[in-house]
């Protein structure tokens, strides 16, 4: 399943719908989303379709955070299932990202 | 009449470029016909098109000339003496093997079955007489193009084969080098059971074990993001650092910080290492562990025949954040004889069955409640994973480790470990250290003090004990004294995480009046010595008499590591308002 992206009218909020299996296969597509980051834009990653995620997906999230300026990155993870949440917590990623 | 070279065209015709993709080699055509007139017409035509032309009068000659001259295209009559066109074609195709040599039948036969047979025996095309010169040359051109394409593909395949073979050879050598660097250390100790199953030639999981200078054991399990070459490259410095730091007597938190800063510096942002680093003291009683990003670590109580602790990760994996953001909170456990520690990578919990379901933590934890004896637990868990997975292919690296805290076994192996040489050192000494807010945030006094104190000849063997006592005393003074945190928070669900967050907040809020003073005094005795540790903090103290009586009545009060400290130390007492504590550790040379 492909990754889809929507921008708000003013371009300040980018919503990204992640695939059912968020893993290394999504690497290129996910990368394209934040390759030319908009300054000060808020990124919302929607996990509502995502049932599984692997550690390379965690790596992709880190890469995104780095490219959006690390501590200045404004990335929110929404609609995470319990297994996704616990994977994020296992790696303490809830301290790097806003997880809901 | 012997086969003869009828004509070798020297002139270069205009269409030649059509047939000479490779300019250096002239295309050769073989004409097979028993009729001399037919042969002559074709010879002229092909020579005009730039072919080197050979002619055979029957199938038998054709086979011989095919072998001798290796033509790139063959024009074949069907009805001939000695050997007909069908048989000759079958034989030539067989001799050509993998090479593609187009054969075009030129025949006066019009029967459909006969024509179909041309293709059946291996012919590539046919043309009925009388044929048009233009059509024949066009067919030759098309088939020549096809044979060039065929050869290109074959060449590429051969090239890939050569590369592949070369790569496998290189990987083999690299694997040899890799396994020399990332060696298994002392994983062959009888108290350790483990399984490592590499998904590719290199493994994304690494498992390292080494004896500490004091005879204890350090173990590292790491799971790199991804697997294969990038993961393996990251494993090299991890292994190198782990072994050299262990040899130098570094404590668990020092190892963690060194590894983290190295990996943060060398790995690209999307790569990191989930890891657990643990130390077991030389009497195999004290377990100190740091846990960053691996699945829950399990501790099984031999006495209660069930899991006594499930340790969740509360830290970042290695290589994600800078050292100043990395927490080195250690978990310390008092192990009973025969208790077991289980470490594993997510390959176990994420093993999938035929329905694409994962094995999950729940199924793993359930394995420990099936009443199996501790001796068989390791094999039992693995067989459950295999049963679950069935015929499914392994999709991730699978690593599983058991360490048995068997005291008798541990004592036997201590002898093999020689203590590091130490410089002459005063036998009777004292030191004190005063710590304030910035020190609490930035330094790790426990490792420094442990290192300092255990320089005394012989005390090195007690290093893990000293480290644990100092850790417990320092953390008590900081958490419950200076910061005034309630340890009951830890017993709630996800309490440890909550506790750490609270602690972080309180640390930042702290004013300059908060302090911890630590004093060490050492006195030599015959064959050993006595180390007295005094810790005073700025907290308001607590009702230690109530705690002591709870303990005496065995009410199960477990705060402040009291039972552990009480059992490790010859003397352990609170004084003042409960904000002063003294611990006396008595030791003997092994």
Could you walk me through the main structural features you see in this protein, from its secondary elements to its overall organization?
- The complex is a heterodimer of chains A (100) and B (590).
- With 100 residues, chain A is an alpha/beta fold.
- Chain A is globular and about 35 Å long.
- Chain A has a domain at 30-52 and 60-100: Transcription Regulator spoIIAA.
- Helix content of chain A is 29%, strand content 24%.
- Chain A has three helices and seven strands, in the order E-E-E-H-E-E-H-E-H-E.
- Chain B has three domains: 4-154, Rossmann fold (3-Layer(aba) Sandwich), CATH 3.40.50; 182-414, PPM-type phosphatase domain (Phosphatase 2c, domain 1); 429-588, Histidine kinase-like ATPase, C-terminal domain (Heat Shock Protein 90, 2-Layer Sandwich).
- Chain B is 39% helix and 23% strand.
- Mean pLDDT of chain B is 83; it is low at 1-24 and 410-423.
- Classes of the chains: A alpha/beta (100), B alpha+beta (590).
User: What's the CATH topology name of the domain at 30-52 and 60-100 in chain A?
Assistant: Transcription Regulator spoIIAA
Mean pLDDT across every amino acid position of chain B: 83
The residue ranges of chain B in which pLDDT falls below 50 over 5 or more consecutive positions are 1-24, 410-423
User: Could you give the count of β-strands of chain B?
Assistant: 21
Query: What's the overall geometry of chain A?
Result: globular
Helix content of chain A: 25-40%
Distance between the termini of chain A: 23 Å
Number of helices of chain B: 17
Number of strands of chain A: 7
Corresponding CATH architecture of the domain at 30-52 and 60-100 in chain A:
2-Layer Sandwich
* Domains of chain B, number: 3
Helix vs. strand class of chain A? alpha/beta
Helix fraction of chain B, binned, reads 25-40%
Q: Widest sheet of chain A: strand order?
A: 1-2-4-6-7
- Biggest sheet of chain B, open or closed, and with what strands and sense? 6 strands, mixed
- Please, what is the average pLDDT of chain A? 86
